[in-house]
Amino acid sequence: MKLGRLNHVGVATPSIEAAIAYWRDVMGAVKIHEPFDMPSQGVKVCFVDTPGENGTAGTQIELIEPLGADSPIHGFLAKNPAGGQHHMCYEVPDIHAARAEFLAMGKKVLGEPRIGAHGTLIFFVHPRDMGGVLTEIMETPKGDGTH
Ligand SMILES: CC[C@@H](C(=O)O)C(=O)SCCNC(=O)CCNC(=O)[C@H](O)C(C)(C)COP(=O)(O)OP(=O)(O)OC[C@H]1O[C@@H](n2cnc3c(N)ncnc32)[C@H](O)[C@@H]1OP(=O)(O)O
Ligand SMILES: [Co+2]
């Protein structure tokens, strides 16, 4: 499997507002995007751009707060009440080919590809099969890959 670039690091938080303040005031985020609800994924989302070179945006942090009773991050926050690093997301050119490759390697792919926060198809691979890291695979957006 040849992964593309790291698109974002998912960080679960019990409070997006508190997390925004941390990334802005402590970590010097260069841009805080408008938070939005993704009921289909059971999360409230806010993208934060860390500083890159010469004032440009670097890596994106995806802050996620539970939305609804069935949110997939309730279990994580029960174990990590203050929040923490939740998943890493890598781009691939062809989501269906990538999914088939992970399955062929015997990895536990969590569900069918569905639309993610960048508007392209995503799927997750279970952390037990990925060195303890919940891994999100997303099809590369047509634009610049930022939200
Ligand atoms: C915003 C939309 C989208 C995007 O476009 O970017 C997103 O990123 S949405 C992000 C939220 N969505 C998801 O996480 C969907 C996929 N996740 C799941 O299906 C579940 O969270 C899970 C990975 C199957 C875990 O389910 P859960 O019920 O919470 O836990 P288990 O008891 O089954 O856990 C088993 C095992 O795995 C460990 N674990 C759980 N979560 C993580 C994690 N994020 N990172 C590392 N390890 C994790 C958990 O501790 C258990 O370990 P053991 O106790 O050793 O068995
Ligand atoms: Co994500």
UniProtKB/TrEMBL annotation:
- Gene3D superfamilies linked to this entry: 2,3-Dihydroxybiphenyl 1,2-Dioxygenase, domain 1
Q: Name one GO molecular function term.
A: methylmalonyl-CoA epimerase activity
Looking at the record, the residues that make up the VOC domain are 5-140
Q: Which SUPFAM superfamilies match?
A: Glyoxalase/Bleomycin resistance protein/Dihydroxybiphenyl dioxygenase
- Say yes or no: keyword Metal-binding present: yes
InterPro entries per the UniProt record, alphabetical: Glyas_Bleomycin-R_OHBP_Dase, MeMalonyl-CoA_epimerase, MMCE/EMCE_epimerase, VOC_core
Give the highest taxon in the source lineage.
Answer: Bacteria
Output the GO biological process annotations, alphabetical, semicolon-separated: L-methylmalonyl-CoA metabolic process
Q: Which UniProt keywords apply?
A: Metal-binding
Similarity field:
Belongs to the methylmalonyl-CoA epimerase family.
The identity of this protein, by name, is: Glyoxalase-like domain protein
